[in-house]
């Protein structure tokens, strides 16, 4: 119903932003990532919006990029992930980092968000792993920003991603190739498994 709002930022409090368009003020719930991109009150702002309609309420969500909105919508498709949980995830991680974690099978990264326990994080990865990178240009292999690998940390998986990237693969391709590897595997075994999977995709 509402694709975007372009108008004057009236106020923002960290969780929401009020935007005046044509004399009407619209209150949008925003993530911490979007909040950090907002201009000063009184300046023009553009937010891509999503209208959530429930039996008891209608709530408008605003995003600084279409990529973040797409990630929000994909997250809310998962059973147990409502709009508030999706916003919490996107407040803890950027959209690129969420996509990278899901493609890599790194459910632990998602637990950084309040309200996301290990079981829910694993469900998110399970239900969305095949959707990211397939038919969504925003999250295709090679399109993720350089900041995305930050979610991988310095563990074996992160070292294996770095090793495959050094061989010429994109970090997203490397992460996807390692998505089926158990966290307990050694770096060497992860690299071998990743290379086998990548060679089959050639």
TrEMBL record:
- This chain belongs to the protein called Holliday junction branch migration complex subunit RuvA
Q: Which organism is it from?
A: Hydrogenoanaerobacterium saccharovorans
Give the encoding gene's name. ruvA
Domain remarks = Has three domains with a flexible linker between the domains II and III and assumes an 'L' shape. Domain III is highly mobile and contacts RuvB.
Alphabetized SUPFAM superfamilies for the sequence: DNA helicase RuvA subunit, C-terminal domain (SSF46929), Nucleic acid-binding proteins (SSF50249), RuvA domain 2-like (SSF47781)
Spell out the subunit comment. Homotetramer. Forms an RuvA(8)-RuvB(12)-Holliday junction (HJ) complex. HJ DNA is sandwiched between 2 RuvA tetramers; dsDNA enters through RuvA and exits via RuvB. An RuvB hexamer assembles on each DNA strand where it exits the tetramer. Each RuvB hexamer is contacted by two RuvA subunits (via domain III) on 2 adjacent RuvB subunits; this complex drives branch migration. In the full resolvosome a probable DNA-RuvA(4)-RuvB(12)-RuvC(2) complex forms which resolves the HJ.
Q: Does the keyword DNA damage apply?
A: yes
Chain spans, region Domain I: 1-64
Location of the region described as Domain III in the Swiss-Prot/TrEMBL record: 144-202
Where does it reside? Cytoplasm
Keyword tags? Cytoplasm, DNA damage, DNA recombination, DNA repair, DNA-binding
Source species, domain of life? Bacteria
What this protein is reported to do is described as: The RuvA-RuvB-RuvC complex processes Holliday junction (HJ) DNA during genetic recombination and DNA repair, while the RuvA-RuvB complex plays an important role in the rescue of blocked DNA replication forks via replication fork reversal (RFR). RuvA specifically binds to HJ cruciform DNA, conferring on it an open structure. The RuvB hexamer acts as an ATP-dependent pump, pulling dsDNA into and through the RuvAB complex. HJ branch migration allows RuvC to scan DNA until it finds its consensus sequence, where it cleaves and resolves the cruciform DNA.
Top-level taxonomy = Bacteria, Bacillati, Bacillota, Clostridia, Eubacteriales
Task: Give the chief site where it resides.
Answer: cytoplasm
Return the similarity comment: Belongs to the RuvA family.
